[in-house]
């Protein structure tokens, strides 16, 4: 009977068949230990000289890394292994003899590993990260699905910029310039007026020309948008969402996080209430820390690092100067210099993982803002319609999946959080 490695605990004492790849191998005289992975987990398969024909024992001693195997044997408890079980091999078949595998247990540099990303994904560390990512996505979607949000997919080809014109990817759309989407937000605003509560989840693109550990040119964003909601509602939603998603990942991916040597206690501290500070309070903190920022400037990676290290859980920084934020932000009625926006900074120096806020719902103000930002009015005609027909206060946010995964896994760079990263100097594999 064919069994997956993560199900062997249900078959103790039984003979089963496994299909997988040779992860590693070592031998000691009468025994060959084959570490076989099948994508669900890895198991030690023990080939004892007396249990198999001589030619098979010999073959086991020459198997190459990543050869594909079918292994038949009996499941035994094995308290010493992390899986808790091993396989006593009776026979095996080599389905494919792998050529000399380029990724060996020795250390490789990041460029070499990224060039071999299609193979690197098989390593236990990448496996753990991708499983965390998979659960992050499921938890995010589940959060909104269970609260009456409708999933509304945003287009990837767009006629206009959402997040500024400096990092647009332009494509030739049958002779007309079009842009790969930077954010689904504007479409989610249309969706919120149609369905009340919506979210999108899809790839977004930014021609980031600088090399940093937080920027990809293609990344995935989850973006909720809610009608009849203001900045406070938006912050409550972001807080509740984050706490639930982190909790679920910690509960379901404890083994993976532990294998990545993540300090899980730091994630368990992510409980309500999350601290909320105003931009101006953040300025004071930065000045104290010897990193002064002038009022009106946005924070860069360094400033976010300083701020996020001050807290033991994500911090919501709200009301940035309108001048450094996007055209659609609603101006604070209590201080016209400020926008009703919020960034959520992850602790431990990770920085911004969420950006959002309340949207401008007044037609005239929005038209002026589009003009002031030098954006082409024609491209926003449809968007302005939303302020002509039943305009109401509304708010939302976007969370980058890769930044979230980097923080949850405790990774230095976002490049390991996505199966095939796209960056300034990387388009392959
Ligand atoms: O702060 P941003 O630019 O906000 C928006 O795009 C809004 N329109 C979202 C909304 O309100 N619906 O981006 C949101 C998040 C960031 O907080 C970050 O997590 C991620 O997207 N992000 C990136 N992740 C990886 N690489 C990049 N180049 C990123 N740029 C933004
Ligand atoms: Mg932002």
Structure description:
The chain is of the alpha+beta class. The chain folds into 2 domains: 5-96, OB fold (Dihydrolipoamide Acetyltransferase, E2P), CATH 2.40.50.140; 117-416, BirA Bifunctional Protein, domain 2. 29% of the residues lie in helices and 26% in strands. It contains 13 helices and 16 strands. The chain has helices at 54-60, 110-115, 117-120, 124-145, 185-195, 231-252, 254-259, 264-268, 279-288, 301-308, 363-372, 381-385, 401-409; strands at residues 15-28, 31-37, 42-48, 68-77, 85-96, 150-151, 157-158, 170-173, 176-180, 197-205, 218-227, 276-278, 315-318, 341-346, 351-358, 394-400. The strands form 3 sheets. An 8-stranded mixed β-sheet has the order 6-10-11-16-15-14-13-12. A hairpin with a 4-residue loop joins strand 2 (31-37) and strand 3 (42-48). Helix 4 (124-145) packs across helix 6 and helix 4 (124-145) crosses helix 13. The longest helix is centred in the N-terminal third of the chain and has 22 residues, at 124-145. The two termini are 36 Å apart. The relative contact order is 0.11. The structure holds 4-amino-1,4-dioxobutan-2-aminium adenosine-5'-monophosphate and magnesium ion. Magnesium ion (MG) is lined by residues 343, 352, 355.
